[in-house]
Amino acid sequence: MQPYEVWGERWRACAHPLAHQFMEAACEKQSLVVLAADLPSVDGLVNLIRQVGPHVTALKTHVDMVEEYSMREWRSVIATAQSHNLMLFEDRKFADIGRIAQTQMGGMYDIRSWADLVTAHSVSGPDVVDGIAAAWEGVQRIGGVLLLAQMSSRGNLLSDDYTDRTLEVGSSSPHVIGYIGNGSSPVEIEGLRAKAGEGRMIWTPGVNLSAAEGVLGQRYGHPGDAVRAGSDAIIVGSGIHGSEDPGAAARAYAETSWNALLER
Ligand code: S5P
Fold first, then answer.
1. Which residue's CA is the closest to the ligand 1 atom numbered 4?
2. What are 211-222's pLDDT values in tens digits?
3. How many domains does the chain have?
4. 36 lines ligand 1 (CB under 6 A)
5. Is the CB of 63 under 6 A from ligand 1?
6. Do residues 206 and 184 lie in contact, with contact meaning Cβ atoms separated by under 8 Å?
7. In angstroms, what is the span from residue 10 Cα to ligand 1's centroid?
8. Cα–Cα distances in angstroms (integers) from residue 164 to residues 31, 75, 150, 160, 167, in the given order
9. By residue range, what is the domain housing residue 206?
10. Is 209 in the pocket of ligand 1 (CB under 6 A)?
11. What is the CATH number of the domain that holds 70?
C-alpha cells in the first residue's frame, strides 16, 4: 500500500518533509513505533538498536543521560540507527528563550548536527522554536520540532488552556511538525486531534501493552487505543527495553500500532 492510501488526509495535509519521511518509513516497516532508548551506555544503546531496528521507525534519545559521553562514541549510535533507517529524535525538551535554545542545539552534544527532530516546551513562547530552527539552518540541515501539548505524567501542569496556546504556536510555525500528546488517555488524544486538525502529527508516550502504571507517576494506556484516538506514533520505552526479549516486544508493538492505523 502507498503511504497516501494508508495515511489519508494526514499525508496530504502535513507539509513538513520529515512528516512524510516518517509516514513512508512507517509503511515500509509496518510500524508506528518510536523507540524511547532510555539507557545510560553507548554499548547498551547500540545493542538495543540492533535487536529492534527492523521493527521501529524512529529512535528517541536523551543524550544527556549517557554516562561517559563522547561525540566519537555517540557516532556509533547514530550510525547503527541510520543503518536501520531510523529517524533521530532527541527528546531535549527545550524550554528557554530563543537565543539560548539556539546555542543549546550546539554545545557538547551538538544536537543540531545529528538530530532530525527535537521536543520543546512552549512555556517560554514561540521564539524557542525559531531558536531551534536557526540552529539547524546554521549547519544547513532540516529538522522538525514536536511541542509538548500534553504530558503523560500524573499531576502535570499542562492545562487545556496551555494546550490551546501551544497549538496556536504550532499551527503558525512551519518548523513545528507536530505535538506530544498524552498516550495514556484516548479521550485526551481525541481532544487534541480535534483541535490540531490533520496538518500536524501527534506522537504519544505513556503507552504499554501490559502495564497501567509506570514508576514515579508515569501513566500508561493501550497503544492500539492511542492510535485509534488519533496518535500517529507511539513512543515506547520500558515496554521494549525493559522486556526480556526486546526484539519480540518491538515486533508486538509494531503489529499493534500498524493494525490500529489500518483500522483508523
Ligand atoms: O509526557 C511525556 C513526554 C515524553 S517525551 N511523557 C513521557 O514519558 N515522555 C518520554 O517518553 C519520556 O521522556 C520517556 O523517554 C518516554 C516514556 O518511556 P516509558 O519507559 O514510560 O515508555
1. 205
2. 888 999 999 999
3. 1
4. yes
5. no
6. yes
7. 24
8. 29, 38, 10, 6, 5
9. 3-263
10. no
11. 3.20.20.70
